[in-house]
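I had to read the description of the data format several times before I understood it. The format is easy to grasp once an entry is in front of the reader. For illustration, here is how one protein appears when written out as sequence plus structure tokens:
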Amino acid sequence: MDRGRPKKPSDGTSTKNTTTNASQQKSFETLPQGVKACDVTSKFSPQDIESLRRQALDQAAQFEVLAAKDVSDLSRELHALDERCEYLRRTHRSLRPEAKTSSVPISQS
């Protein structure tokens, strides 16, 4: 999962597509409001509820189930990675002003 800046194509073309970016941005300005699970039967028709149920089952069928121990281990690992990322962000923020004022450039490895 790459969360950094998008990679530049090797042919030198731009990675930005301004027309789709603008339309995507506008489409996410206001999101539709959901309905609480306990209120679904009073808000949706039985046909809509059945359609949503089938859709949820189809989507759930695409996933595999992990053992509880594996979920616990992965949750701990994710928490440790989140802490490490936050530490690196803080370190990066604190080093930026030093790099600007330093007369010796910092070499990047």
The mean pLDDT is 82.
